[in-house]
Amino acid sequence: MQPVERDVLVEAPLPMEPGLLPVAGRGRWSRLRYTIRQSKSFLLGGVIVLLFVVVALTSRFWVPYEPRALLIGPTLAPPSADHWFGTNELGADVFSRTVGAAVLDLRITFLAVLIAFVIGVGVGTMSGYWAGWLDIVIQRVLEVVQSIPTLLLAMIVVVAIGPGELNVVIVLAFLGMPYYARLVRAEVLSKRNWEFAEAARMVGGSSWRIAFRHLLPNSLSPALAYASVNAAWVVLVTASLGFLGIGIEPGTAEWGSMIARGQAYVVTGQWWISVFPGVAVLLLTTGFYLLGDGLRDVLDPHSKR
Prior knowledge:
- The protein has helices spanning 28-38, 40-62, 94-130, 132-147, 150-161, 165-191, 195-202, 207-215, 221-244, 255-266, 272-299.
- The protein is an all-alpha fold and 305 residues long.
- The longest helix has 37 residues, at 94-130.
């Protein structure tokens, strides 16, 4: 009897986008570096943010004057070789204060984003995996928090508990947390019945292990991309609170308070007191927004605009 030949169906490979074609010999990290190099937003935003971080970390070694020092030069002096950004009405060096404010604002931003990220990711994972009554309670609480305008709520809380760096960090972390929780919850909710999660259950994995060891690492991409956008928001709200005089303690070098201090002098020609801190806020927030846009491309290369 002759053997019967059977047709073998060979599945054709799916087409890939031209910019995402694999390169022979490249590993995971090589492909990641390749994808990063293709994202101009990520590169430009990363350079801007990295520049601010380097300036803040090294400022104590090269800044000419102490940011809090007063009467170190003539009052309301324009930019010059001695005072690169001029001086304010108290004779303080605007350049030194602008750089000193970068240290403060970056520290507040990093701590607020980190706390909001950690708590929000944990809450979102529990809400999405266990669902049921726990999910209902968590979502209702988050909806109440998000229903109040964030700047107004930040002003109310800071006024109630008093100014200070720690208080501002706690308030901004609390206000940013619901967004991380919702993003991670949506990802976990959609993936909790996927094959890898079912396989973990079949081998006896506990609920906590499945949720935080298997589902969470596969659900972090949107939260990581949002972290950069959240950082830009923290910078803006911190400057807004300083502008209103209810954020950091009076006398501290902070961009918002510097802008508020110099706004009265813009009409009389002393523009440098407000302009340079305002440019710093603009550049840093732009850098964070570009970095967030680039992170979306890096973490999800197949996404369509």
